[in-house]
Write a structure and sequence with these properties.
The complex is a heterodimer of chains A (345) and B (203). By secondary structure, chain A is of the alpha+beta class. In chain A, 28% of the residues lie in helices and 31% in strands. The chains are: A alpha+beta (345), B mainly alpha (203).
Chain lengths: 345, 203
């Protein structure tokens, strides 16, 4: 008999299988628990897709009708029956315990949140010393809660910060001087109302101050004592008496580490490398530079497979570039993509 | 292109209950054993990880394009989730140390003839071979693996296997032949340290 596995006979296969016995079965109770949870998740996903399809169809129909009946349709929409209450946000990522407290007047007790949960309007959310949370807002923006944070009255465009820190990424840069977005996100604090104007920023509540750090774009602050606008790369401290101080702030590095830790990971399957690099650079407050033109061209044609779930941003960047035959360096606020043979050329 | 898997994903997204059952019943036990082997037999941890993996996979099912098999796709999620589990627990996992994932595995499996030995070394080798046999079965199409177990472990006849699979006896015999071929290919791939083996059910 040959000892080479490739040459094993039918009899040897039979012997191996008899000798090893059946594969270990999964305990029934575990199977039932996981199946029930997975089934719920699947039904929710199917329902969500169906709802999104209906919304798309409805939008297309509405657009077609608008061509001939714009004014009448708008009037009918205004006086129509109220739409069912839409969620204020969807949970994209959770680490550690995070609790939701229903809107005031509802009887439900606080409960733990999991990825995929919908957050009803006017809810309160709370993280503990180990908990962080990333939410996707209907506007497309990302809202992240640091550890030991509490917010109240969350809607699709506003919240009240009671303790801790939140980070807002409205999802894209706006041209200088562009109009303030109709659905800008507002954060109410003891020192005033903070409103984004197409940006990434953090608001942290201290014992007697509110600290605002702007990573990108512009943020406006409305206070009884007068309005302020804070630009990218600045930190503003506001106390409750109205005094302010500010300083320059790097838009990348350790100051922003917690926002990167809870950042929902991009679904890279089928996406171009360039899209991934743009996302990565934005999440880290970096500019993107290719050491050679051919690398930039390749990045626009290479499609990615797999997933970066569970990886840190560093691990994800390194893994993806490795599989694409590239590497990176971070220098001077830039994510530099280069060939494996080094920065020359 | 894994058209069978792609079709399963498509039917699931349309809300087909039977497809969900086929997906869960086919992949949950495999993923659970996959996680157990990499998590020091931590059953609670494996259950938690696999539940998370299945939830994430379902939420991303619309992005599945059939370029890899569903099992390979799910195992990618599972590896990441296991790493995250160990990171949260503040310790390093064993995900990189399984023998079917390193080329040196062949050395431990050079001689199948030593299976009859009684010493501790032979016992360890037997355990490793048992695990690789199970890994090989888990990587086969479900009907192939089931048919092989029914035939050689439960001792069912071809006619009985045909009845369980709702096939003719001739078709069942043919399926068993293909199952043995796939097992042989898979086992030899694993014992050579390969990791990309993805058999597709044919016929």
């Amino acid at each position: 008999m040959s000892t080479e596995p490739a040459g094993i006979s039918d009899e040897k296969i039979a012997g191996l299988l008899r000798l090893t016995g059946p594969r270990p079965a999964v305990p029934v109770d575990r199977t039932e628990r996981v199946k029930a949870a997975t089934h719920d998740r699947w039904r929710a996903e199917v329902s969500g897709r169906s709802r999104r399809r209906r919304v798309r169809v409805a939008a297309a129909l509405a657009a077609a009708a608008a061509i001939v009946l714009l004014a009448g349709l708008a009037r009918r929409l205004r006086v129509g029956a109220p739409a069912p209450q839409a969620p204020a946000a969807l949970v994209e990522a959770v680490t550690g315990p995070v609790f939701i407290r229903p809107a005031q007047g509802t009887a439900t007790a606080p409960s733990a949140l999991r990825a995929g949960d919908a957050v009803p309007p006017d809810s309160g959310l709370q993280t503990d010393e180990n908990g962080r949370l990333a939410l996707r807002l209907p506007t497309g923006g990302s809202l992240r809660l640091d550890v030991d944070t509490r917010i109240e009255a969350l809607t699709d465009r506003s919240l009240t910060l009671v303790a801790g820190a939140v980070y807002v990424d409205s999802g894209g840069r706006r041209a200088p001087g562009a109009e303030e977005p109709e659905r800008a996100i507002e954060i109410h604090t003891p020192a005033g109302r903070i409103r984004e104007i197409g940006t990434q920023f953090e608001v942290r509540l201290g014992e007697a101050t509110v600290r605002l750090r702007v990573r990108e774009g512009l943020v406006s602050v409305d206070r009884p004592s007068g309005g302020l606008q804070v630009t990218s790369g600045r930190e503003l401290q506001l106390d409750r008496g109205g005094a302010t101080s500010s300083r320059e702030l790097p838009i990348h590095g350790e100051e922003w580490a917690w926002t990167e830790a809870i950042a929902p990971r991009m679904a890279i399957e089928g996406r171009f490398l360039r899209e991934f690099l743009d996302w990565m650079a934005r999440e880290r407050g970096l500019g993107l530079q290719f050491r050679r033109n051919d690398l930039a061209a390749s990045a626009s044609t290479i499609r990615l497979n797999g997933s970066i779930e569970g990886l840190t941003l560093d691990q994800a960047l390194e893994s993806v570039l490795l599989t694409c035959g590239m590497r990176h360096r971070i220098e001077g606020g830039l994510l530099v993509v280069e060939a494996p043979d080094g920065p020359a050329l | 292109m894994n058209l069978r898997d792609l079709e399963l994903a498509r039917r699931m997204l349309q809300g087909d209950e039977a497809s969900f059952n086929e997906f869960f019943d086919g992949y949950f036990p495999v993923l659970y054993r996959f996680a157990m082997a990499r998590m020091n037999r931590d059953a609670d941890g494996a259950e938690e990880v696999v539940q998370t993996v299945l939830g994430k996979a379902i939420s991303k099912l619309g992005t599945y394009r059939g370029e890899a098999s569903l099992l390979t796709w799910l195992c990618t999620f599972c590896r990441h989730e296991i790493s995250a589990h160990f990171e949260r627990a503040g310790r390093e996992g064993r995900t990189a140390h399984l023998s079917e994932e390193i080329p040196e595995v062949a050395a431990a499996l050079e001689s199948l003839s030593s299976l009859a030995g009684d010493g501790p070394e032979e016992a360890l080798r037997r355990q490793e071979i048992m695990r690789l046999v199970h890994v090989t079965l888990d990587r086969l199409p479900v009907r192939y693996a089931d048919a092989l177990e029914w035939k050689y472990i439960e001792g069912l006849s071809v006619v009985e296997i045909a009845a369980r699979l709702a096939l003719s006896a001739k078709a069942a015999e043919s399926l068993l032949t293909r199952a043995r071929e796939a097992f042989r290919d898979g086992f030899s791939t694993l014992t050579r340290g390969g990791t990309t083996w993805e058999p597709e059910e044919t016929g």
